[in-house]
C-alpha cells in the first residue's frame, strides 16, 4: 500500500451568514495516497470547493471548520495558526484555481510574481530564482520564456495564464497539488493541453493531485480515484473504474446517465435527475439526494446512510447497500458497514 | 435526406465586423472580423448545431440572424425574405417567428418584472390575441399553460426571477420564447450555465417542444458532446469562418477538417478505459486574434498539415534564397546564444534566411504557400458534407 499523504477525517465546514448556518461540508472523510490523482466531482453547492479550501485552511469569516481533522504528514492542519500554515502552503500543498486571471496580480509581471513565490519558499538568490522560473515556464510549455516572463498577466491568454500558475504552483515541488476546476474557464482544445500538462507533471514529479471538477469526462481522463459529493456529503468513493463501471449510488448513476456519450451511435434519450439540489441552509434530515432519488425509501428521508463498504477500494453511502435493504437490480449489498 | 426539402433559413456570405480602430481619427485601423462570410442553411424542423471555441463568432452569428446586430454584409433569407435588408418596421413579424434563448438565465430576465410580465411582453407586443374576445384572460391562460408545459406551476406566475434556481429561470426563458408561437429558436448556449444534472432536463424539454410544435433550432454551444446529442447537422466555426458542415453522425465519425479532428479529439470522454485515450491530437498554441486577420486559412498557424519540411540538400543552389518569403512554422532559436532567430508564423526575410543558412540548419519547416495566402472556400466534398481546407483530399486520402 502506498504511503498516505493526506487524511481528511469527518470535516464539517459551515458559513455563519445572516440567513443562518450554511452547512457547506457536513462530514467528509477521504485519504490521498502518494502519486494518486483524486478527482472530487459534484455540482455547484455540493461542497467540493469548500472541502479543498478547508484543506488549505483558507476558510475565511464567516466560515469555520467546525469539526474534524485534516492530517498531513502527521500534523493536523486545522489546529495550525495562520503563520504555521503558511509553511505548508506553497511548500507542501499548492493550489491552482478556476480563474487564472483573478489568481494573478495584474500590476506585476509574471517574473515578479514567480520570483516572489520561489524566494519565499527557498533560499535562492534573485538571479537563481529567475533561472528557476524560466525553467519552470519551459516545462509547462510557454514558448519563449526568456522574453515572455517579462509580460504582465493581461498579455497572456487564458491557457498561458493557467500554465504560468501551474508553473508557480509546482515551483517548490509540493507533495500535494489541489486544482480547483483548473480547466473550466478554458476552451476544449486548451483544456486538453492543460490536462496533458498536469498528467505529465504528475508523472515526472510523482506528486499527488486533488482535482476538483464537475466534468465527468475530465475525471475519467486524469483521475486514479474519485470522490462523488452531493449536498455537502460524500455519496460514493472508489477507484476511477469503480465509479465509472460499477457505480453503486443512485446519484452517481443519475449523473452518469444524464450526460451524452459521444462514443455511442444511437441517440438514446438522456435520463435527467428530476428536481434540484438541496438548500444547505436547511439540509434535509436524511440523505440529501432522497428528494430526487427514484429509489428513495422511508429510511432515506430520516437518516443518512453510512458509507457501506463494497470492496477494498469502493464504498457508497446509500441504504440500498445495507443488508436489510430490498433487492434492487443493479445494486450490490455490503457485507459490513463502516 | 429529402431532396425537395427547402431551407427555412439560409445565410449567405454573412459578415459582421466590429470597428475597434484606435487613435486620432481612428488612424490605427483595427477591424474585428467576428463573422467573416459564412454560409449555412437550416431545414424546417431540424436542429442545426453551431460549435467552436470562445471568440469564433458563433454567438455573433446567432445574434446577427435575429438582427440584434446589424450585419456588415450578406443575406439572411428567412422563408425567402432577406432580413438583412428589410426595413425595421417590416421586421416585426419576423421578430415573432424567430425567438432566442440566452445563455445566462440570470441576466436575460428582467429582475423587476414578474414571470407573468416577462412572458406576456411578447404576447402583447405581437398582439397574438387581438381577435380574441378577452385578450387579457387569453394571455393569462396561455401563460399558465406555458408554465405548466415547461414544468413550473401556476402559482409561480406572480413571482420574480430571483425566487427561482438557474434551471427554473432557463425554463422561464424557454416559456417566453414559446409564448409567441415561433418557428425558429436560436438557442445561444442555453445549458452552459446549468449544472450537469439539470442540463439533461432542459435538453429533453427542448426536444419535446421541437416535436410538438415542429420547431427549428439553431443550437449554439461549446459543449461538443451535448451538441452532437441534440443536433441533426453541425457547423464548426473558427475565428469567424465556417470550417466544416456535416450531419452530426458523419461529423463525429469522419471529421475531415484538421481543426474538427483536433477539436473532437479534445473532448474528455467519460470512460477511464477509453481506447482513444492515448491518440489525442493536442493543438499547440492559442487561438489567434480575429482583429485584422491575414489572408489564408485561419487555422493554418495551428494546423499540423500546414507545414512543409525544406531540407538543405534539396536546394543545391542557395538554401537561403529558397527560404526567403516563406513562413516559419516554428520559432527558430540560435543554437549557441539561445536567442530567437525568427518567431513562429513570421515571414523569413533575406537577412534571417542568410542567418538560418549560416547557423547550419539542415532543414526548416515552412508553411505551405496556399494555406497561408489563400482562404479556402467551403466546398461539398461528400454528400451534405462541406469542408474548407485546401488539402482535405490529401489529408483524408483513405475516405475521399
Any overview of this molecule?
- The complex is a heterodimer of chains A (338) and B (400).
- With 338 residues, chain A is an alpha/beta fold.
- Chain A is built from 12 helices and 12 strands.
- In chain A, a hairpin with a 5-residue loop joins strand 11 (308-309) and strand 12.
- In chain A, helix 4 (110-121) packs across helix 5.
- Chain A starts with a strand and ends in a 22-residue tail after the last strand.
- By secondary structure, chain B is an alpha+beta fold.
- Helix content of chain B is 30%, strand content 23%.
- Chain B is built from 13 helices and 18 strands.
- Chain B has helices at 58-65, 88-97, 115-125, 135-149, 166-178, 196-213, 224-230, 248-253, 258-265, 319-323, 350-358, 369-373, 392-395; strands at residues 7-19, 31-43, 47-51, 73-78, 81-82, 98-101, 184-188, 216-220, 233-238, 241-247, 307-311, 327-328, 332-333, 340-342, 346-347, 363-367, 379-382, 385-387.
- In chain B, the strands form 5 sheets. Chain B has an 8-stranded mixed beta sheet with strand order 6-7-8-3-9-10-18-17, with helices on both faces. Chain B has a 4-stranded antiparallel beta sheet with strand order 2-1-4-5, with helices on one face. In chain B, strands 11-16 form a two-stranded antiparallel ribbon.
- In chain B, helix 4 crosses helix 5 and helix 5 runs parallel beside helix 6 (196-213).
- The two termini of chain B are 20 Å apart.
- Chains A and B meet through helix 8, helix 9, helix 10 and helix 11 of A and helix 6, helix 7 and helix 9 of B.
